[in-house]
Amino acid sequence: MTTPSGYPIRRYAPEPGTWSKLTARDSVVRRLDWVILLAALALSGIGAALVYSATRNRTELNQGDPYYFLVRHALNTGIGIGLAVATIWLGHRTLRGAVPILYGLSILLLLTVLTPLGSTINGAHSWIVIGGGFSVQPSEFAKITIILGMAMLLAAKVDAGDREHPDHRTVVQALGLAALPIAIVLLMPDLGSVMVMAIIILAVLLASGASNRWVAGLIGTAVIGAVLVWQLGVLDQYQIDRFAAFANPALDPAGVGYNTNQARIAIGSGGLLGKGLFHGTQTTGQFVPEQQTDFVFSVAGEELGFVGAGLIIVLLGVILWRACRIARETTELYGTVVAAGIIAWFAFQAFENIGMTLGIMPVAGLPLPFVSYGGSSMFAIWIAVGLLQSIKVQRPISA
Amino acid sequence: MSNIPETGRTPRVTVRLAVIQILVFSLLLTLGGRLWYLQIRNGDEYTAKADNNHVQQVVQPATRGAILDARGIPLADNETRLVVSASRTDLMKMPDDGEAVLTRLAGVLDMKPADVMAKVRLCDAKTPQPCWNGSPYQPIPITDEATTQQALQIRERAEEFPGISAEPTPVRRYAAPGESNAAQVLGYLSPVTDEEIKKAEDGPSPLLRSDQIGRSGLERTYDAELRGKAGVTRYEVDNLGRVIGKAKSEQAQPGSNVITSIDARVQAVAEKELALAMKEARKSFDKNTGTNYKADAGAVVVMEAKTGRVVAMASNPTYDPNAWVGGISARDYKQLTGKDSNYPLLNRAIQGQAAPGSIFKVIPTTAAVNAGYSFEGPYPCPSSYSIGGQVFKNFESAGHGDISLGQALEVSCDTVYYGLAHQQWLKDGGNNPKKDAKDWFYKTAHQFGLGKTTGIDLPGEVSGRVPDRKWKKDYWKANEKAWCKSGKKDGDYAQRIAYENCLEGMKMRAGDSVNYSIGQGDTLVTPIQMATIYAAISNGGTLYDPSVGKAIVSADGKHVQEIKPKSHGRLPMDAATRKKINEALAGVATRGTAAWRFVGWPQDKIPMHAKTGTAEVYGKQTTSWFATYTKDYTIVMTISQGGTGSGASGPAVRNIYNALYGVSADGTIDRKKALLPVPQRSLPRIDSNGTIQAQPVGRVYKAVGLGGGAPQ
Lengths: 399, 712
Description:
Chain B: Keywords: Carboxypeptidase, Cell inner membrane, Cell membrane, Cell shape, Cell wall biogenesis/degradation, Hydrolase, Membrane, Peptidoglycan synthesis, Protease, Transmembrane, Transmembrane helix. Chain B: It holds the Pfam family Transpeptidase. The complex is a heterodimer. Chain A is 67% helix and 4% strand. Chain A is mostly helical. Chain A has one domain (31-393). Chain A has a three-stranded antiparallel β-sheet with strand order 1-2-3. By secondary structure, chain B is of the alpha+beta class. Helices cover 35% and strands 19% of the residues of chain B. In chain B, helix 15 (405-411) packs parallel to helix 22 (575-590), helix 16 packs across helix 20 and helix 18 crosses helix 19. Chain B is elongated and about 135 Å long. Chain B starts with 10 loop residues before the first helix and ends in a 51-residue tail after the last helix. The chains are: A mainly alpha, B alpha+beta. At the A-B interface, helix 9, helix 12, helix 13, helix 14 and helix 15 of A face helix 1 and helix 2 of B.
């Protein structure tokens, strides 16, 4: 049996029956990072409960069916797990070979958003509505493409043993590869995703061992870019308002500051143990907008308290801890770089999302990994989990 | 891991991975810290904010208790009116904000749609009245005068009127039993203000925006008891104000009923006789001013002599207290508080003050005895008394020879008191007073309770004034500048007075002292003060705090709290003096200045005592005073610009006594006709369900006036 790209799996094990193959001491299943998997499953489960709590009363959203969002969240999680399994099955190395195809697809999808097929949801023009209540956010998948593509370029010569570190030419190529999707996302504009992508690029460059000048240069470019974006008026009014409200939460509590203010009230009123699942007054009363997606953490804060909300942070910490270990222990630079990109992605997106509900970050429309309702995000996150597993599994076992 | 594979990574990458890891975990720690800060450190603050966010309260007002007369007849109670109200929360859920429903409703109620919509809009700085300034979660009353027909239409077609209710609701009513009015005694209600809500916020009885508060009279004094406690239901609401659950509810506790000592029938008699007496006074000619008497205001107090309880208290001009119910109209308010109507809101029995004239003389009589003069005298009663060229005349300039203090009271001889007061003034040092001046005449007035309030259980009582040395000094200090500016030595009367006052207004002059001794000049008293004093002479010397409230009965009738008579002192006279004054005042009624008003009175069966008074007021007509008592009752009446004491007030007072005791014009007593031959001691019967049994009001009284005799 071979994968489509031709990597023979039997290299790792003989081929007895399927069941014993799965349970054999050195089987793929045994070698998976179960800690990450269980933590990710736990987060998805908590997410399902929170999404249900936040949406069971929202008749204007759930079309009269209190389970509408719960069912869809479970379905998304299921599909996500399926995608993760497929990713493990294919392996990150196979995907390295597929980067040109994936990259092309990503760019195509991103460009589609800019055509009349694209839709604006919550101020971000970053969606393609497929119908049936489903929509795709190509920027989520673009994050994976950027990670894989950059890792492929940066690690190629190092893994081949040609060089100790990526040379300047490679770095320029890698940055160029990342620049195109970022530019498209910037045009949408989906600033939240741009920020995540910038952090991913930074982490990827760091992990690849690219020269310090590149790292410093990138940080400088980001700062100048931010200033330019501000000065040139690329930002829409709603984005400027979000920053203003972040700088001064008391500003216009009925308008821009409303979200963050109500989210903070929800979380703060949760106390140590919370008001109990489905018993949050802020949540039941629908005081926090977008509570099943971007502000899902406020449900946890209010209904599960410091203990429950803290558990989410701890579970994310566990995943990131294990991911760091995977990044450290894999044999090839390619795997290290991919893992580092994923770590930066998860960590920054979780920090930005939770940080904005806690009032320490400005509002940006980013979902909380595993927990927030949303198909594209869920799929991309689980594909990333699959990649992490693949990096771990395909690490040759020493004798 | 025991076997770390060879990664081939450079130290640079290893270090950078460590940096990434440290950065990642710093971010997570930051989140954890912030979470702790919000939830644990500041959790309480946010909990309060969340509660504020989602809890709204709806108030069910408590039924206000009734004010009853001594026989259980309601003076103020509640009537059930059909109130149509709209729930704003329900209306706002409709796509057109309830416009269609309100328009339909206006059709049923015969109102203009715009008026109905104006009533349900919320008040803010930009919205003019009418608007709703209560809680938006409270049903907003559209009208309290719906007919049964209209209410039925609304209820039967409930699906056409979502959010509209037509409910029987209690509304305050001043019942005016037997055509009694008692407006100033009962007082009135008006909606609570923001300040009051704030003030009562942390108190034992917090106020709600829908509350009405007693603003005067009994409604104010017994407000807390009458009001009860409103029921509050707290609802949980969502971000759009939709109700998503019931949080807590407290039942409304109806207010207590207040039983008063007022007898509605006697009250009606007192009011009608006062009004007629004033009307008749306006027909009589005043020689001094050359016009008819104005009789612009008057008051009468009927008090139980042995307890200080008020049986009737009338003040004129008066008004209909129902004008306040359901919000007073701007026109009514202007009229009630305007000068043209002569301030009918004032309760002149406790807020009207005037010089007492000769009804004051019981005080200088007592003062003289206490100063060491014998009651019997004799003292000369010439037709006039002169001090340094200034002549003080006896009233109507009659002389009576040498008489006792008792006779001086009987014939109201001023010159006897002039002489005594002048002697005392000289003894105290005259124009250069001694340090230990005795001031007997002033001291006694204070001992009688003048110059301070009596402590009646009605708000706004005024204290009157005893023009003693201290007052003179304070008054001079306050007015010195104005007097010295306007005073002229050779100007008109007012200017000459001002000139004199400027120079020696701080001094107690001989003229002040003698004028004071007969109740003229700067002395001010209220009818209730004089009633308290004459009641004390009747009851053996106890000065009672007058009272109107007699008992507070909880709504279920289980708790009855009687209000016991309280005293604020005793008259400064021994039993012998009191007896002699008592006899002299009986003489006034039989032989003296009041005798002509008590012709045919059964003095042997119901001994009557009286004192007349006619007070002079600069620039105005004389004030009529009449103070009387039997062993059971004291009646004091006054009419401003009404003429003489017995002349203007006499018939009315006689008619009130006739009604109380059932006395006919010829002096026969018919107990059946007597309204209250002895004061009402017991409380009305209270049923097991809390209902207070009312005795019949009886026939409506018609004022008799000068006609005299028992009630027809």
